[in-house]
Model the fold of this input.
Amino acid sequence: MATGSEVQVRGHLTKELNHQTISLLRPLERCIVIPKRFNDIFATIAETIWVIAGRNDLSFLNHYLPRAPEFSDDGMTWRAGYGPRLRSWAGIDQLDRVRRILMEDPSSRRAVLSIFDPAVDFEESKDIPCTNWLHFTVRDGSLDLCIAVRSNDLMWGFSGINTFEWSVLHEMMAYWLGTKVGTVTYFISSLHLYERHFERAQQILAGRGHSPYSSYPAEVQFNTTFAELPSILERWFEIEFSIREGISKPQEINDFPDPLLRDYLFMLEAYWTQRRAPHGRFEPLLAQVGDRALATAGISYFSKGQNNVENYGPEIIGASVPDKNDLIRHLTSLHSVKDAMYGNSWKRRGEQISIMANVARKIDRLVLFRPGAPSSTESALDTAMDLLVYAIKYMTYLRDVLGESPPPGVETWSDGLAGFNRTIEDLPDVPSVRSYAQATAVVTEAFQKLEQSFECSAGVGERQPLVWALAVDAWALLWAMVSEGPLEAKRLIDLGDDGIFP
Done:
């Protein structure tokens, strides 16, 4: 959020916009895939079906949202979970009532689903429903949806789960009524962003217009009657359990009758396949997902710094491995922006205190990086790019110290851009691609040799080939990561200067 008032709420700083109205003309385009957003599409799928099935138990949700108990009063349920309120409020299935109202009178203005319960929701609790009510109307053959929300966290709420879950319900209701899916309009009293998300929000805004799934039009897939829904959902959860336990049979998913819910099962199968074995072959599963945007959201999740996954399947997402010129162009552009920002601060305190410290920091991040660990604002791919940039800059520094003649018209190798741009051109052609783990081990060993040269009191001339070896190995590491995650690499290059440096 670029604007908004700063407000302290329950000890947390937020930026807040009051009384917002947001209309989505194409609500079925429900997958958000933009740089730095890092949406967990698998948790979103799980929570959505859990709500529509009328559940609020954490025994299921914990498998996809490990932090769910933090928002529970008893550690076993979400007291204000939407599921039971929508499907069994005092014994009333509100989905069924709304469906019947609009079937009998399509012009009705009474098709309201209530969620906020004044009998219990004025009490102190960790879990008070954020969405208050949903209102369906049919006009000109289209089903429109209005949603009133008292409090909406922009990152975890509105764009994290709400736009997805309510669009699925919207699609289902339209199918039951035989209408087209119309627009959805949100009336939000407090639309806010927590301080922990301020920096990432700025990065997301910088990546607007770079969604790789925009060429995939949304399609209506759901085709289960309301009468069949209970048995279909029961079967869906049975298969989900077998997927999670690693005992599912491929034919179970292939034979699932509803295309939308079948897609979601393929997605969860891909998720658990990758989670059980980081090198698991999830591409064939994502290739069977009918919704290409959904499959791309899965690829985006797997590629958010989890570069240990082999060959992200260009045939699935249309992403090809960039060539050498693409990477060099991106790295020189990245360097030029950072040089304009930081100037010569990278070498101000000399070789050991400034330059080696920066290189060591990048090496440590790569060594400590673990696939599946919570992502920070700097991905492993960002780190690998920064490491290579620092190694090249280190070379320019040593060239100056050793008195090598700089390019014509340039005063020094290490000041400005020309020396860097000339040095990076000396990198070899595309190296033999190693795995991420192998490439990380090699580049770490190269750094250790460089580090030991200081302990042995080696001279600058002896250290220069060690620095160049580090640069070449960092280049090989970068290629290993690009080959394993072409979508992430393509997104960085298409976005431009998105790396974090220093």
User: Anything to note?
Assistant: Residues 460-484 form the longest helix (25 residues). Residues 211-215, 305-319, 371-377, 494-502 have pLDDT under 50 and may be disordered. The first strand starts at residue 5 and ends at 9. The beta strands are 5-9, 12-24, 112-114, 131-139, 142-153, 180-194.
